[in-house]
Structure formats: C-alpha cells, structure tokens
Specification:
- This protein has 409 residues and is an all-alpha fold.
- The protein folds into two domains: 230 residues, no CATH class; 112 residues, no CATH class.
- Helix content is 75%, strand content 1%.
- The longest helix has 55 residues.
- The protein is elongated, with a radius of gyration of 24 Å.
C-alpha cells in the first residue's frame, strides 16, 4: 500500500490513500497521555481482559438472526431429509465437516490481525447455513416463473447458469447487507468484509454439501464410489468456490463500510452482487471441458483471490502501525512498543516473552486492544460517527493503559 505520509505534526495530517481517504480538514491529533510519556495510567496489577462490547444494533441483529435461523430449520431440515434419508443426512453431515473446517480455518487465519466479534461470526455462519438456504428455497420458484421464460434457455441450463447464481448470491449477500447496516462499527474495511463473506459462504456450502453428499448415498447403486467422486469434486477441488463468489461482494461492501451513510452500503450490495453472480455462473457453466477450465480459469481466479487477501492484510498491518505511531507521538507508546504491537514479528516475540513470565493473557488482550484502537482512530479520521468514535477512543486508551501496566507488572 502506498501512502502520502508526511510526519505527524501541527497541520501535517497522515493521510493513507485507498484504505480510507482522510481529508486534511478532518485530521486531528491523537489525545495526549495525561499521565506523561510512556507511563502507565494505572498502577501495575492484574487487569481484566475486557470483552469487545456490542452495539445495540449488533446485539439486535444477533438475536434476530438466531430467531430467523431457528425458524428456517423447520423448512431446511425436512427438505434435506426428504432428499437424503436419515443415513444419507448423517453421512453427508459428517463428510461436510471436512471442507467446512478448511474454510473456517482460513477465515481464522485471515481474521487474526483484528478479530471480529464471535457473536457476529456466529450470526454470519447461521445466516449462511440455514437462513440463506431458506431464502433461496422461497425465492427460486418465483424467480424461475418470472425470469425462466424470458431467458430463452431450457430449464436445466437456466437453473444452473442463471437461477442458482442469482438467487443464491442474493440470499447469501443479504446477510452481509444486514451486517453493514446494523453492525457497521465492527466492519472496518475489506478484510472484515472478506471474513464475514467467507463465513456466510462456508455455512451455505456446508448445508449444500450435506445435500449433495447425502444424495450420493441415498440415490446411488454404488454409494461409496459416488460419494468419493462427489466429495473429491466439492470437498477437495472446490471447497472455496462459494467463498470466492461471495468474497467479491464482501470486499466491495467492506470498502463501502468506510462511508458513514447507508446509501453507499446499498450501492455496494448491488455492485458486489455482479461479480459474485458472474463467477458463480462461470463455475456452474463448466461442462465437458471442466478440467481445462478448472486448471486455466478457476485455479488462476483462486490464486488472484489469495493475492488480493494477502495485499489487504498487509495494508491492514501498515494502517495499524501508522495510527499507533500517532498515539506514540502523543505519549501512549514508545517507538519500540509500536513495533511490537503493529508487526507480526513483534507480536510473536511479545507473546513468547509474556507467556514465559505468566502474562500471556494480558499480552493477547493488549495486542487486540491496540489494534482496535488503531481502527477506531481511522474511523474518527475518516468521519464515521466521530462522537461515538471519540468516546470509544477514551475507553480504549484507558483499557490499554491498564493492560500495559499489567504486562509490565
């Protein structure tokens, strides 16, 4: 990531380019440490590891999502059992855990730098695995009735290349839109968008895999062979297919989260659906030349997705360092502490040391709190709900002072 990065000082704003543009008139100095430079604001002692507080909107979203998921089970579960049977459902459920674990471990890796609240990740998974499936089931018949004849395609081709991409991506991305509307404070940019999109997609693919794997058991004269074939295609060759489709929507909506109004969120939802639907349709359209298209089209798309995510993570780290350096200038950290808090190498060394002296939990909490503080400052400087951001900043600075004192102990 390139930056226009003059040294902080009066009238000299630090202004990152594409991870949230900051207008010079919106820049403000970090608040000074009233306790003096590099001094803990609280006496040494065991500091509480504070949980990330949820906003009312996020809490309401989680509760509403849980209710929707519970209701949707009564539609989705009978649908699966009717097509797989009990034995097929059980085998499909167990087999589906493998690709699900692969995607969720990837989500955990991507999300390590600035972890998202667990309750919102649970909402995302529940939305993908149950609610979006129910939405798809409810919408598909009407979409087919309205758009099918107008497409001029036979039903099978229409269902595979048009209906499934449009309806499924719409159903999955509705969860992203709800997160952006009601938990915007927790979405700091495209990396967060990818994390939530991948989690929703992992849930959707999990339930869809139960159906495909279960049917291989229930409808085949040679269930072992057919299950192995379907598992290889879906669990080995393409566990990230849905994640990449919906991930494009997540990236675009993650950028929109840096804006302070709902207008950009709605536009990003629509704009983000286009590449997701096109990628999904291209995947479903692969026919006789499946292997060639997989190797020469889908594999490069996957590699590009990996590269984009890596670049976004690098940009996220640089942004963290840039913002924490401003707090260091205001007396909250030393230069060495910024290096420790804002680099992977520094964090690993800090955790090793803290664990060796029995303060690993406090150090983990300090690293997480410092990252949240950096993104809170970025939210303030880009004009996103500045009054709430300033209040959060004061709470987080006090928390960091307490945690820093506990770590130094």
């Amino acid at each position: 990531m390139t930056t226009n990065e003059p040294q902080p000082g009066p009238g000299r704003p630090v202004n990152p380019t594409w991870l949230g543009q900051i207008r010079p008139e919106d820049y403000r100095q970090a608040p000074a440490n009233p306790a003096g430079r590099f001094q803990p604001a609280f006496p040494p002692g065991p500091a509480p590891v504070r949980a990330r507080r949820s906003t009312a909107g996020a809490l309401g979203l989680v509760l509403a999502g849980g209710l929707l998921a519970f209701t949707s089970i009564f539609l989705v579960l009978p649908f699966l059992l009717a097509r797989t049977g009990v034995s097929g459902f059980i085998v499909g459920f167990v087999a589906s855990l493998i690709p699900l674990g692969t995607v969720l471990l990837t989500v955990r890796f991507i999300d390590r730098w600035e972890p998202e609240p667990r309750q919102l990740l649970l909402f995302a998974f529940a939305w993908g695995s149950v609610v979006s499936i129910a939405v798809t089931m409810l919408i598909q018949p009407y979409f087919s009735l309205v758009a099918g004849p107008a497409s001029g395609l036979d039903y099978t081709t229409f269902a595979v290349t048009v209906q499934a991409p449009v309806v499924e991506e719409f159903a999955k991305s509705l969860g992203l839109l709800l997160l952006l509307l009601f938990a915007r404070k927790e979405i700091d940019g495209p990396v967060d968008g990818v994390v939530f999109a991948f989690t929703i997609a992992a849930g959707f693919a999990f339930t869809e895999n139960i159906l495909y794997f279960g049917r291989a058991i229930a409808e085949s004269s040679d269930p072992g062979t057919d299950l192995a074939m379907v598992f290889f295609l879906r669990g080995v060759m393409s566990p990230f297919a849905h994640a990449i489709f919906t991930g494009t929507t997540g990236i675009i909506m993650g950028f929109a989260a840096r804006r302070g109004s709902n207008g950009p969120a709605a536009l990003a939802f629509v704009a983000g659906l286009v590449p997701a639907m096109l990628l999904h349709s291209a995947w479903n359209s692969m026919g006789r030349d499946f292997l060639a298209q997989y190797v020469f089209v889908q594999v490069p798309i996957f590699l590009v997705a990996v590269l984009v995510i890596m670049l976004l993570r690098v940009a996220e780290r640089r942004l963290t360092r840039q913002r924490l350096a401003e707090y260091a200038a205001a007396g909250w950290f030393s230069a060495a502490e910024v290096d420790m808090l804002a680099t992977g190498r520094g964090r690993r060394a800090a955790l090793r040391w803290a664990k060796s002296v029995g303060r690993g939990a406090q150090m983990k909490a300090l690293l997480a709190a410092a990252t949240r503080l950096a993104f809170t400052r970025q939210r303030i400087l880009t004009g996103r709900d500045v009054p709430a951001g300033l209040r959060d900043e004061q709470h987080q600075l006090a928390e960091i002072a307490a945690l820093r004192a506990a770590v130094i102990g």
